[in-house]
Amino acid sequence: MSNLPIRVNVVFGTRPEAIKLAPVIQQLKQTPGFETQVILTGQHREMVSQVMTLFNLTADHDLNIMQPQQTLTDITCGSLQGLEDLFKQFNPHLVLVQGDTTTAFAASLAAFYQKIPVGHVEAGLRTNDVFNPYPEEANRRLISQLTQFHFAPTTQAVQNLKNSGVLGEIHHTGNTVIDALLSVAQKQPQLHIPELNNNPYRLILATVHRRENWGEPLQGIAEGFLQILNKFPDTALLLPLHRNPIVREPLTERLGNHPRVFLTEPLDYTELVAAIDRCYFLLTDSGGLQEEAPSLGKPVLVLRTTTERPEAVEAGTAKLVGTEAADIFTEASVLLKNEIAYQNMANAINPFGDGQASERIINIIKLNYSNPK
Fold first, then answer.
1. Annotated catalytic, 100?
2. Which entry of 17, 122, 223, 331 is annotated as an active-site residue?
3. Are 48 and 10 in contact (CB under 8 A)?
């Protein structure tokens, strides 16, 4: 057996990728026999830096592609050009990407152009609507066509990949976000918003950012929030605002003057975990929160008409409520008035894993690269 290290390049550019790849990178760094390069594209900046600080990670290389009002084309082209040079320089045995971002797609394509195998963390998610969510559904399908090692978080994701007829090995590993969440939650983080810590409000944690919810759907979401607050005076809404003004400005205008709405800057991951733990339930269009919140026993109402995580809906930990104000109000009212309905969601078993996904992924890589060249 060769003593040469297994060269792995891990590429990411957004906060969700950083969170979900952090435990994988930590596992790689702790495991003998690996030479790991961490590459940032810079698709996002400040929010990624917060996550890397939290998990004590450093970037070996930063493409620094972020620019004002960047388009999907900007992200793709900048990533492809920068990664081509790095992949030629490092000649890795494997490129690891995560999820469904434009960074992940561009990194997979750049690896393919250099004939480097791709490992896809969180492979196999599907809505079967190529424009919803956009561009994520197309990204993950395209990544699947270029992947040699599919690390699927659930049995449904495994089946989706089989149904797609993809090439490469399919492995059921669980979701690495549960690894990250549990490692932070065990430190019992605190939510540093005194107005919330010193009152008995039933706190609703809300996040909104997806492209398909921009414009009119965002107005419906905001109106739904207001109807809940007006009907249930013992509730408060914590809404960390996305940095994109297309999302931020309408929500600030509609909700900013309500005395029980707490608008904040994006929470760092420690504070987000604390907010999940503190809240009564979540209203969100986030994919990751559909996975994370059930691990802390919190129901999730999904502000979308489709989800690539149907396992959560089937398990009873999440429910699709769409973006119409009346629907949001109705479903939130059930959780606020019906203790049995609430407990059924809160106590449902999270289908996304046990916190050991990263270890499984590293063991699979070791098994396949026991004699690197």
1. yes
2. 122
3. no
